[in-house]
Design brief:
Radius of gyration: 19 Å
Strand content: over 45%
Order of helices and strands: EEEHHEEEEEEEEEHE
Number of helices: 3
Structural class: mainly beta
Helix content: 10-25%
Number of strands: 13
Largest sheet: 10 strands, antiparallel
Shape: globular
Strand order of the largest sheet: 1-2-3-5-6-9-10-11-12-13
Oligomer: single chain
Length: 209
């Protein structure tokens, strides 16, 4: 501690997993003069370790994107940073994840790396947020690639979802990764595909977020 700033070094978050010890370590400081809380942790974690953090933030729109990852056999190299403005309760949360192997919405992937940025802020009577999932870069077991970004914005009573992606995977796999269930097109349809999509709908359709 020094002056108007309290600093906490060597923060360790660990979990009592059987057979292996996993933990995140980092630092945090509280600046009383600037009314700011900032911290970072990094290390290895499993999906069940990270999901409760998103649940605690009570932003349910984030969970389907996170739950799309399944069958990830190894701990995930992870980085998390948070920045809180105590004056107006603005929150910036950033996650950087690099899972290897597993599936996303049922599609087998060899590797993926991507970022999640969540900005929550209150203006007037509205609790608003902007969640950016990406840029994400993934490769399937045959070396085909998928690159894209999903941005979800909630403000003035509405959600807006923007999707931009480019891929050399079969179009059917791209649709499943995007969350469209079913066989809309044959897996034999291959080649480079690009898309830009935008959806707009009232918050009442998504638990008021």
């Amino acid at each position: 501690a020094g002056g108007a700033r309290l600093t906490f070094d060597n923060i360790v978050l660990d979990w009592p997993d059987k057979g292996e010890k996993l933990f995140l370590d980092g630092f945090c400081f509280i600046d009383l003069r600037d009314q700011q809380v900032y911290g970072e942790v990094r290390g290895l974690a499993k999906q069940p370790h990270i999901r409760p953090l998103l649940e605690t933030l009570d932003v349910p729109v984030a969970l389907p994107y996170f739950d799309g990852f399944t069958d990830v056999p190894e701990p995930v190299p992870s980085w998390c940073g948070w920045d809180v403005n105590l004056t107006n309760n603005d929150l910036d949360l950033r996650l950087d994840l690099k899972p290897v192997l597993g599936r996303y919405n049922g599609v087998r992937m060899a590797s993926a790396k991507g970022k999640i940025h969540l900005h929550i802020y209150t203006r007037g009577d509205w609790l608003n947020y902007r969640q950016t999932i990406g840029p994400i870069s993934a490769t399937d077991p045959e070396g085909r690639t998928l690159d894209g970004t999903v941005v979800v914005t909630g403000t003035n009573g509405y959600n807006v979802v923007d999707i931009e992606a480019a891929s050399t995977l079969p179009v059917a796999d791209v649709l499943r990764i995007a969350g469209f269930a079913g066989e809309y097109v044959s897996r034999d349809v291959v080649g480079e595909s690009k898309c830009r999509l935008q959806f707009r709908f009232p918050r009442s359709m998504t638990n008021n977020y």
